[in-house]
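Today's session is about reading a structure prediction critically. Students often jump straight to the picture, but the first step is always the sequence itself: look for stretches that repeat, for charged clusters, for runs of hydrophobic residues. Only then move on to the predicted structure, which in these notes is written as discrete structure tokens rather than atom positions. Here is the chain we will use throughout the hour.
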Amino acid sequence: MTIDEIVSAIRNNRIRITHHADEEAHSDNLTINETLASVINGEIIEVYPKDMPYPSCLIYGETNKGEPIHSVWAFNEENLWAVMITVYRLDSKRWINWKTRRK
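Below is the predicted structure for this chain, in token form.
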């Protein structure tokens, strides 16, 4: 799974958004468009190859206003669809430079 594959799925409208992701976006005052833009200009910072039913990854990106957010995406390599699992605004107490987890 690469960021390019996920971006391609977004640009080709081959995405699903879980109910959980929709609720989290709403609770953090994030729009789906902000989240998608953050992925298009984002980067994968963690990969979870053993996630089921599809491998997933954590993407760091910024909204159009430059606000950092994370989103977790699964990718089905068979049909080239991406699934947004969750999205959230970052807590500086848990992240260093928004990309490395604090221990």
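Discussion point for the tutorial: The beta strands are 15-17, 43-48, 56-62, 68-76, 81-89, 95-96, 100-101.
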